[in-house]
Amino acid sequence: MWILLDQELLRDPYDSALLTAMAVLGLREDGGWLPPDAYSIHIAAVIKVARMVTIRQSILEFEDRDEQPPTLLETVRSKVLKFLIKTHPPQNQPCPISFLFELRSYAGVIISSTPSIGYLTFDGFDITFRDISFSLPRFTDASYFG
Strand, coil or helix: what is 120? Predict the structure, then answer.
């Protein structure tokens, strides 16, 4: 996976094998696209695995050096600055993980601003949350005297 992270996005983001694979993960069986709340789980998983791979690769490089190496922290930091942050220093080009951070941000905005299935319903003085029902007067009495 390390080689998939070590890419610069020069033109089209889908020139990246990682982003193309992520697009395939977004397809439903019927040919449509997954909703943002279902797809953002895939994005989060890939970002988490990318973090683990980055740390593992840094450890391997740190152990394999013969000359006076920088510390492990410096090795990890250089990779994080290059591959695992949303904004890049001016000398770096955008990378696949940066694109995934953007997608995850958009998904978060869509999820938080789109109405979803409600689990809490009111029927007069009766309240139902999923499979639990109770009346509002009994609830207030229990909480007041409890």
Answer: strand
